[in-house]
Amino acid sequence: MLSLRNFNSRSKVCALYYHALFVFRDPLLVRVFFDVALIDRGWRRSGCYLYKPDMEKSCCPSYTIRLKASEFVPSKEQIRVSKRMQRFVDGTLDVKKTDKLTHELDSSGESCNIATESPVVDGGGKDETNQFMHFLSEKINNSVQVSMKSEEFPSDIQLPKAFIKRVVPAKRNLQADNSEELIFSCNIAFQISATLRRFKKDFQHTESSALSIAEILASHSKQTVEARGLSVRACNGHINFYSLTKQPDLIDPRGGIISKTAPTEIICGARESQRHRFEIRLKQSSFDYEEYSLYKKYQLTVHNDTPDHVTESSYKRFLVDTPLIYIPPNDNNAAVPPCGFGSFHQQYLVDGKLIAVGVVDILPKCLSSKYLFWDPDFAFLSLGKFSALQEIKWVNETQLRCPSLQYYYLGYYIHTCNKMRYKAAYRPSELLCPFRYQWVPYDISKPLLDRKKYVILSDYATSQNGESLLLNVLGSRMENLRFSDNESDSEANGADLNNVLIGVRADVRRRFKDLRHAFNPSRRKFLESQIQRYVRAVGTELSEKMVYSLH
User: Fold this and answer.
1) Contact between 242 and 181 (Cβ < 8 Å)
2) Closest C-alpha to 38, from 493, 358, 432
3) Which tens digit of pLDDT belongs to each residue from 536-547?
4) What's the CA gap between 222 and 224, in Å, rounded?
């Protein structure tokens, strides 16, 4: 059952107000949370509490931010973070120099505190497998140039470069015929599609645009790739490379067979040349004393908490307890990822030592990052940014098996807080309009938030020349907004209250229309005002499936 409450968090400089719901471990309720997506109405989870900012009262408006993982284009700084980790594992990183640079960045407010998965950039590129991956990347890039010359793509903007990824053995058979095996994959079509949408406003971007781009590039690359013993096909916007016969061997760029496959990702275990062993482990949410010890060290050192505020019980309430029921993987259901759905802790280890933990929810449509805590002794590795990249990478890889899992949610974006702006660096991201619950590109939202911190983002569109266009001019005072748009009013009128599900007692549930007569006029009027707030917060559809508790 749920009941709506208001609470506020005040400090000397900030007052944040939230709506809060306490959620019991009810499988039906959890399925509703999954399917109807409270998360897409601005709600977040902390332990067994769901909360949502009250934008009318909070001094720092918080906008839900997300990224479509397949369209992610890493920045130079994000690529440097990946390379830095690779050099650390290889033993070639100057830790003292890097630690000094990291301290300077942290002092300027550019630190990062979220968890994620990133494409790890290989710094060596010396083994034959990497040579062949580079060879395929260049062939795709050549195909892009051919398409630009033939005017299939615009030639007046710079398009992103292709990056070939090796498919892990466990996933090679998922999208391959019985006679072949998926070896490499490339998501450049999604990146090109995102670039065209950003810089070419007249480009007709649809869900099929990445599919058509992948088809074009695959056809241009087909002859050259097949001459090397592989086949190439476009599949759901990805460019996939297959071996013509099932075998664990890879193809040498010179035309021969490599008999030994060498791991190209640092998470696959240590190579002989590596100085450190780096591992990433995903486990279901549960109390682990080693994790708690790391959390305590992090809170005391990074956030200057006092020991009496970092107890085992508070840690469990914050990062271990969850209302989400674990849904295990099912061989007969390809829609469930190998890890299942639920709440997880992603551990990062160096030489067996735990150095970071990312707390995440894995849902049918997204991976939602909750919190990251890390060892301050390893701050030079920028573990917040690195973990974020790792989670994005995980979504991309998992999407091969679970197509609905497309998005990476980074929590709340607070434009007025410098330490929260790093989230917008994972591009191209979107912000959720807190009134109409429509997603608006960050590039459109930013100039609006630069001028005013309270903005109904969905009141703005983009004109053909890329300028922001105001559709509805509203007052600057938040009190004047109060869900005055038609969409919000439709969820708050009396007619919609009839089917709200009410919990009279723990085992008794009724529709509000069946209970109206049980209250005197004053009590009924008060209750209707409270339920209207509830419907505004969770939406009409959810209000008819979740239970609003009267006790």
Assistant:
1) yes
2) 432
3) 777 787 778 778
4) 6
Q: Which two tokens stand for residue 347?
A: 């551990």
Residue 165 vs residues 22, 229, 496, 497, 516: alpha-carbon distances, Å? 42, 18, 50, 51, 60
pLDDT at 147 over 60: yes
Average pLDDT value over all residues in the chain: 76
3-state secondary structure 511-550: EHHHCHHHCCHHHHHHHHHHHHHHHHHHCHHHHCCCCEEC
- How many angstroms separate the Cα of 161 from the Cα of each of 14, 67, 71, 191, 482? 43, 20, 13, 9, 46
* CA 268 – CA 277 distance, rounded (Å): 9
Using pLDDT thresholds of 50, 70 and 90, give the confidence band for residue 115. Answer: very low
Q: Would you state the pLDDT for residue 201?
A: 60
> In angstroms, rounded to a whole number, what is the distance separating the alpha carbons of residues 395 and 406?
7
Cβ 321 vs Cβ 50: under 8 Å: no
What's the average model confidence in pLDDT over 462-477?
A: 40
The residue that leads in pLDDT, 179 or 209, is: 209
Q: Measuring CA to CA, which residue among 443, 536, 399, 539 is closest to residue 65?
A: 443
The rounded distance, in Å, linking the Cα atoms of 70 and 50 is 28
**Rounded to two decimals, what is the model's pTM?**
0.63
Per-residue pLDDT for 474 more than 50? no
Tokens of 511: 């529709």
184 membership: H or E segment, kind and range: strand 181-186
Instruction: Estimate to the nearest angstrom the gap between the alpha carbon of 37 and the chain centroid.
Output: 14
Strand partners, 284: 344
Give yes or no for a cis peptide into 329 (omega within 30° of 0): no
User: In this structure, which amino acid lies at residue 420?
Assistant: M
- Are 249 and 220 in contact by the 8 Å Cβ rule? The answer is no
Residues 6+ apart with CB under 8 A from 493: none
Contacts of 427 (CB under 8 A, 6+ apart): 67, 72, 73, 75, 442
- The 3-state secondary structure of 145-182 reads HHHHHCCCCCCCCCCCCCCCEECCHHHCCCCCCCCCEE
378 vs 355: CA distance, rounded Å: 7
- pLDDT (mean) for 347-371: 94
CA dihedral 301, 17, 461, 465 (to 10 degrees): -30
Q: Is the pLDDT of residue 431 over 90?
A: yes
Measured in whole angstroms, how far is the alpha carbon of residue 249 from the centre of its chain? 34
Cα torsion angle, 491, 495, 499, 503, sign: positive
How far is CA 89 from its chain centroid?
26
- Give Cβ neighbours of residue 69 (< 8 Å, ≥ 6 apart): 392, 395, 396, 399, 406, 407, 408
Strands 49-53 and 181-186: unpaired
Q: What is the DSSP letter of 59?
A: S
**How many whole angstroms separate alpha carbon 551 and alpha carbon 548?**
9
Q: Which two tokens stand for residue 25?
A: 């471990």
pLDDT tens sequence across 504-514: 877 788 888 88
